[in-house]
Amino acid sequence: MMAPPRLDLPFIIYISADDVSIGSVLIQEVGGKEQVVHYLSRRLLDAETRYSEMERLCLCLYFTCTKLRHYLLNAETLVVCKADIIKYMLSAPILKGRLGKWMFALSEFDIKFRPAKAVKGQALADLITERSAPQTCFVNINTWTMYFDGSTCNDGCGVGILIVCPWGGRISVRLSPTRKANQ
Fold this sequence. Notes:
- The protein is of the alpha/beta class.
- The chain folds into two domains: about 10-130, Ribonuclease H-like superfamily/Ribonuclease H (Nucleotidyltransferase, domain 5); about 145-175, no CATH class.
- The protein is built from five helices and eight strands, in the order βββααβααβαβββ.
- The strands form two sheets. Strands 3-2-1-4-5 form a five-stranded mixed beta sheet, with helices on both faces.
- A hairpin with a 3-residue loop joins strand 1 and strand 2 (about 20-30).
- Helix 1 (about 55-65) runs parallel beside helix 4 (about 95-105).
């Protein structure tokens, strides 16, 4: 069950990255229990699937913080991840390229790293990431075909339409415009 966010409590973000998708869970601890505030996931673009694990995790953190900016901007945020690579990225001085751009964008947030001790929230993030992966499914789509005779004229000769459905049925329609009196 998702709970509404409380602005007086810090947020916890569990992130996970797979070969083809990323996912995260925004959580708050209320009374010693973790309550889910928001889920996020998305499939990676073709170029993003070639990122290293470090870059995919950083992309996940960047994606989460930009999507949930309205929650995270004025709150303390703890990032929990299996890999300590996020701790390295958050403490790295200056980086070039896309990692530098992402870390610069994340500098406006109050983000701290916390190693994964409990696996409750991390299990949710991993589940979301796994379920975002494409499933191999082949669907045979049968389409309807419409043939139009192209007839048009100002006198109103009519239009012929033939619709063929996927299972072989045919619908033939002849439309004739009505003439107005005293034209």
